[in-house]
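Q&A log
Question type: sequence-to-structure
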Amino acid sequence: MLSDLIRADRSDDLVQPFRIDPFALRGRLVRLGPALDHILSQHAYPEPVAMMLGEAITIAVVLAGALKYDGVFTLQTKGDGPIRLIVADVATDGVVRGYAQYDHQRLDAVTAAAGAAALGSVPRLLGGGYIAFTVDQGEDTDRYQGIVELAGATLADCAQHYFRQSEQIQAGIKLAVGQAGPGGAWRAGGLMLQRVPPDGGFGVIADDVEDAWRRAMVLMSSATPAELVDPELAPRRLLLRLFHQEGVRVFDTHPLEARCRCSRERIETILRAFPSDELDDMQKERVITVTCEFCSRRYTFDADQISRLAPV
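Response status: OK
Response body:
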């Protein structure tokens, strides 16, 4: 098993599930490279916004990997700080996207006052508000949503607060987001460990499980930001470096891809829900233009097309 870890090819834009046996510790390592850079580069966000959105996307991928669902997992934050809104979602096929809304003037004021300390700071950038996690599996199923207040210095802290408050599951998260290489491409890495009920008990006693959990959390925290984002360090090799004495066991990776799910047909469906008089009000010079928040793609509908959209 260890030789398999050593021989694993390095790769990017993936989720690497793993377990630490026999103590029923389940984890995921996420590595994002070109996919994250594509998402963040579409909007030319200021560095604090890009970094916060990068963290949100990484957390969304890490959390989605813990769930069994067929649809879309969404992480959303809404606060009264300079960054008003963040949305990041992950589909079961590995398609990832995200965007942020922010106030330029307030952001400039915060970064001028706090400098580098503002980077990644939830109180300074997001302020007071909430973080929500939603699983949407389609029209014929109920949506699941969990919401907790933004409590913590970082988004990772907020996610762990959610698990403590809502799921009663012990979990640890370690993140790193930054720019690397000559072009300053955005990269991210994330690690998450969870305690899960052991299958059949594994014949271990509670004190051993507790000790193993504390030890695994210490080992996870020892991963440096450089290790988490290093494209030359294969995810499996990093897991071996961290947990080789704990009996780490890895599984097949899941690929990730940055791609928006917007389409002209989806926009038409949304517009058809508006009454004719509201469609008329939306027109500017007999044209309606809709811009996707995620990818910035613009969809334009002229007067003839708008008339065909109006409800019968």
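Response note: The longest strand covers residues 185-195.
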